[in-house]
Structure formats: C-alpha cells, structure tokens
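Bug #77: duplicate submission created two jobs. Keeping one. Sequence:
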Amino acid sequence: MKNNEAVVWFSCGAASAVSGKYAIKKYGKDVDLLYCDTGGEHESNMKFLKDCEKWYGRKIKILKNHKYKDHLDVMRQHKFITNVHGYAPCTHELKMKLRQDAGYCDSINIFGYTLEETKRAKKLKEHNMDMICEFPLIDNKITKEDCLGMIWKSGIELPFMYKLGYSHNNCIGCVKGGLGYWNKIKRDFPEHFKKMSDLEKELGITVLKHRSGEKKGERMYLDELQPDMGNYMQEPSITCGIDCHMNLSDIDDN
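Kept job's structure:
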C-alpha cells in the first residue's frame, strides 16, 4: 500500500487534522494520509474526514480490519479486554496491526501530538528507536486549544464527541477511560454503556477498579459504578495509539 516516504496518521481528531495540514505544506504530494476505521467511533467522524479532505485538497486512505465489526467485537473474539499494562487487543487489531501491514514502518511517521504532549512524544521515540517520527505541532508550539481554533476558523465542523465535552475522539466506550469517563458515557450513550457492561459479564473481565474504600484496587464491573464516582474533567486524556500502553500509569494515579 505504501506510496510515499512520509505518512500522517489521521485519527479524526482535531490535532491530527492540523498536523496533516502542516505535513502537506512541508512534503506536498510526497506524503500519504491514512485513517484506521475502528467501527466504534461516532458516525460524525466520516463527515469530519470528508471535510478535511476538502481542506487538504487530498484524499485520506481508509484502513479497515474486516475481521471485526468494532472494538467490542475484537474483545469478544479474543475473550480479553485490557490488562494492567494498558495493552488492549482492540488497539492492536484495529490500529497498530493495520499500520504495520500498510508498510510504513521505515517511513517518516507524522503524529498529531500537541505542545502539551511533548513528554508523550519523547516517550514514543524512546520506545521506538527504529521509527522515524515527526511532531509538527510540537515543533510549531501548537496546543490542543490552538488546533480546535484552527479547525473552527477553517469552517470545519468538529466531530460530535468534542461538542459533548470529550477531550478525545476515540471509540465510544474506550476501555482506557476512568470512572468519570464511564459515568459520562453512561449519561451520553447509555446503549454503548450497556453493551460494554454486558460484555464484561459475558467474559468475566472488568474495565474499571475501585479507587477508594475497603475495595480499593479491586476490579469493579460497570454496573457497580455510582453517579458520584470519578471526575472526567480531572482525569488524564485517553490515548489510543502506538503508545497507549505507556500511559496507563498516569491514569492509575488518579
């Protein structure tokens, strides 16, 4: 599939969208734009992708693992949700594997990490010494808020998840979310919450764990979640990509 020496990993997030614009400015036609369709993200993402194509004047190639309907299907087939190290089969099967198979391992890989994520970018490079990485937003001192503003000024409608107050645009019901996140999902997308809750019981595996009290540290099922548990606005931003397993310690500290 590889066509050019540089590739932008477009995620339908505001930051990756802006990084794509910077990459096209630098590399012109010598850069590819790829999006991994997980099947579990909000339907508004496809409109955002098409709007970005118009903004770029370029097509975004869509990668899809047709073995799975969505992230829940991956978990069901693998009988596994996530482990203490942050590994999730959905990320591997629906994103990482597709990236590897696309043939860009030795290319210039361009990621939409913002200025606030400088440490995250450094960690990614340290754990992937053989990968050539570029972070145009960090190089240009662009923040997440800057990206949102640039998208708005360009007349592009942001994906619906941002409008609901989510700081990311991952699958609806991401297993890397905390207590506050899942309470927000329960309010905003009760049908998605129920699907994950039912899957937990089916597999006998939980997404969350108790943060306080006598059960602190013990795993907890989603149907045990109380409305006053967690605070989404104070929880670390959820990552779902090549480095997601490296950030679990940050989530566990809250």
